Amino acid sequence: MDDILQCEHLSVAYDTSPVLLDLSFAIPAGKLVGIIGPNGAGKSSLLKAIVEIIKPLSGKVSCFGAPFKKKREKIAYVPQKEGVDWDFPITVLEVVLMGRYPKLGLFKWARQADVEAALNALQLLEIEDLASRQISELSGGQQQRVFIARALVQDADLYLLDEPFSAVDAATEAILIDVFKRLRDKGKTLLVVHHDLQTVETLFDWVIMLNTRLVVCGEVSSVFTQENLSKAYGRKGEIFVEMIRELERKKSGLSS
Predict the structure, then answer these.
(1) What is the distance between the alpha carbons of residues 216 and 210, in angstroms, rounded to a whole number?
(2) What is the pTM of this model?
(3) pLDDT tens profile 14-25
(4) How deeply is 92 buried, as exposed, middle or buried, from its count of CB atoms within 10 A (0-12, 13-18, 19+)?
């Protein structure tokens, strides 16, 4: 299987503070990938380096065998909600249609097909009734669904999602998980910055584990281990593993 994303000796710094050091890894196509690690590990910075929001100190990133700027039409990026001006006067439908801009002509006029694609994406995320609402009127979970819908209408092959489950309700989380797995099953690749270690094994096929440096990258079943979690999180990783074991023991007791 061809690798859809490659990082080669990637280092990133803000001013004089390093956030990523010498990362080298590759991600094959058609994987749902979790990016995990403690706060300040460089998870969001990795996505920003991939889409060239921040410039690497050294090394390089290749998407589909080329730099991002040459393949941008194949890549959809969803930033954290906190980085968006939600007071901007624009409707939900207009936000989603922004995802079609790369496919529009010179004057960027939306066609009926573009509007239908946007409405279909809103329907998939169960917010089609909000199409005419101002984005400032939405809840946090609804806002997150809108941004995912905007990414969907791009019809990308690689999706980069920065904390999509942050501060959303259980219903929104379940909908997003279903959408992400559908995309994966269609052969799309998704990189998702994620914090809830308890759901990693059920959500993801692959995992990138960071703590400034790359701890490990590979299939969840192989690399999501006590040893690697301890490397990434220190004592917190060990505590997490013990908590999971205790839950498993309790489940076994209930089922016996």
Answers:
(1) 7
(2) 0.88
(3) 887 889 999 999
(4) buried
Listed residue (81, 127, 119, 82) closest to 100, CA to CA:
119
Q: Identity (one letter) of the amino acid at 195?
A: H
The domain segmentation of the chain, as residue ranges, is 3-224, 225-256
Q: Dihedral (C-alpha) 194, 98, 12, 29: value to the nearest 10 degrees?
A: 60
User: Tokens for 234?
Assistant: 């220190």
* Angstrom distance (rounded) from CA 239 to CA 256: 26
Second-level CATH architecture of 3-224:
3-Layer(aba) Sandwich (3.40)
Cβ-contact 236, 225 below 8 angstroms:
no
Give the alpha-carbon dihedral of 134, 124, 139, 141, to 10 degrees. Answer: -140
